[in-house]
Amino acid sequence: MNCTHLAxxxxxxxxxxSTASIYGASITLDLVRQNSNNSFQSLMVDQTSGQxxxxxxxxxxxxxxxxxxxxxxxxxxxxxxxxxxxxxxxGTYAIVENxxxxxxxxxNTTEFSRWDxxxxxxxxxxxxxxxxxxxxGSSGSFNWGGYSALNAMDxxxxxLVVGGDGASPRMxxxxxxxxxxxxxxxxxxxxxxxxxxxxxxxxxxGDSYNSNQISVRFNILxxxxxxxxxxxxxxxxxxxxxxxxxxxxxxxxxxxxxSNRTYFSVSNASQTFGVPQPNMASVSEPGILGxxxxxxxxxxxxxxxxxV
Length: 308
Known about the structure:
Blueprint lengths: L2 H17 L4 E5 L1 E5 L6 E5 L6 E5 L6 E5 L2 H6 L4 E4 L11 E3 L2 E5 L6 E6 L5 E6 L22 E5 L4 E6 L5 E7 L5 E8 L5 E5 L2 E5 L6 E7 L4 E10 L7 E7 L4 E6 L4 E5 L2 H4 L15 H19 L2
Parallel strand pairs: 1-18
Antiparallel strand pairs: 2-21, 3-4, 4-5, 5-6, 7-8, 8-9, 9-10, 11-12, 12-13, 13-14, 15-16, 16-17, 17-18, 19-20, 20-21
């Protein structure tokens, strides 16, 4: 076997690896429970304790229900309620971490704040000036509106803010730490997306609030967007996805459908969406190891033949 043939096999190996990160599947949602109190819910998960937090409405509000774990949340068993002095976050996306709440704190600016559950007070705030404060798809935020110009998400490893930057159709993604220091991760182009969630080093975006199609993901580490092709099924006849949250403790996603006021879940979320589980960061993406093994084995056999 000459060098030209080996080079062709090397090219084939690179093609296998480069295309292995594009995933697609039909995903059946599991029913969690209905909540008839309000058509909009803001659900958060503390990625350390596994506690669930729920606030009704996308328009602030001072009371947040606490559930001991995912099972208690599914059963609707509230353990206690946290009260914030004044309004909590705007929109439906927020983060809870070690007794603190993080989220957008106004309806018409890019102010992002941290609240303390023990004191009930806002302890710090900052202006994320790279985002466009306008709500609705025309600015690049989620196309259902709902104060979604800034959406806080926790991937299990990274806290993120996802929203519009005014260059529609384009969404801006920034990482943010507990002290509200932020850094640009990159942009997602293509359309005015409707909902999103983060798992590990990836952010996934749904095509529209009333669409079951998820066709893009963003790699936080590389700053690149990648094509995917996932379709949600089993969520009811009408879809209105206004909130999604990732639970790294149970590796589970929970979706809220405003249309039928019902929570749905996806178990084994990282495997289902083809990315490493956050607490298993050293594990390669599904399929890549197998493809590498096959390709390297083939290269080894060719090299042995070339020496005969």
